[in-house]
């Protein structure tokens, strides 16, 4: 169920995509799920890298395609969970035990979340990234489910992104 609240931005570079992610990391409360959908090369991992760095992750952030889940310590004593559900296309979502990660001490980004949608919480922030040209990416953000808190996060993020792009 989509809330109807949606925003779109054009990113002109990997760095701009990462700056947008940095802004979101500064706003979103821990325990919130952010999903990242898009073709290979659309910027999902670049977004995750900017998000994780903003949380103070010191290790290199790579897509956890083969391990499915990587968890990194964040500066605030919480952790950053980066999931890649691509390998779960044929099933196995229940083996990930996503509900055990949905706690107030984790920031959660999930690539290819459509393969585990039945495991997602009642509401989340869905990001769709698409390739426009070699350097340009369209980023579409939408609240899924009923959540006035997430709608507030999306509004704050939209204002922050516009300030960054000025």
Fold blueprint:
Layout: E1 2-11, H1 14-25, E2 33-37, H2 44-54, E3 69-73, E4 79-84, E5 106-111, E6 124-131, E7 137-144, H3 148-165
Helix pairs in contact: 1-2, 1-3
Subcellular location: Cytoplasm
Keywords: ATP-binding, Cytoplasm, Magnesium, Metal-binding, Nucleotide-binding, Transferase, tRNA processing
GO molecular function: ATP binding; metal ion binding; transferase activity
Structure write-up:
Belongs to the TsaE family. One of its GO terms (molecular function) is metal ion binding. It holds the Pfam family TsaE. This protein has 166 residues and is an alpha/beta fold. The chain has a single domain, classed as P-loop containing nucleotide triphosphate hydrolases (Rossmann fold, 3-Layer(aba) Sandwich). The chain is 25% helix and 29% strand. The chain has 3 helices and 7 strands, in the order βαβαβββββα. It has helices spanning 14-25, 44-54, 148-165, and strands at 2-11, 33-37, 69-73, 79-84, 106-111, 124-131, 137-144. The chain has a 7-stranded mixed sheet with strand order 1-7-6-2-5-4-3, with helices on one face. It is globular and about 40 Å long.
């Amino acid at each position: 169920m989509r809330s109807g609240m949606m925003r779109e931005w054009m990113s002109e570079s990997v760095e701009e995509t990462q700056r947008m992610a940095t802004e979101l990391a500064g706003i979103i409360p821990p325990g919130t799920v952010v999903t990242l959908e898009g073709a290979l090369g659309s910027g999902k991992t670049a977004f995750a890298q900017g998000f994780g760095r903003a949380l103070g992750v010191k290790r290199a952030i790579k897509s956890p395609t083969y391990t499915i889940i990587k968890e990194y310590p964040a500066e605030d004593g919480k952790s950053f969970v980066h999931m890649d559900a691509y390998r779960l296309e044929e099933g196995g979502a229940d083996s990930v035990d996503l509900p055990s990660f949905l706690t107030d001490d984790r920031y959660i980004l999930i690539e290819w979340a459509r393969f585990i949608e039945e495991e997602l919480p009642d509401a989340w922030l869905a990001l769709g990234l698409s390739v426009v040209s070699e350097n340009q990416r369209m980023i579409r953000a939408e609240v899924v489910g009923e959540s006035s808190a997430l709608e507030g996060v999306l509004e704050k993020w939209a204002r922050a992104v516009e300030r960054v792009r000025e």
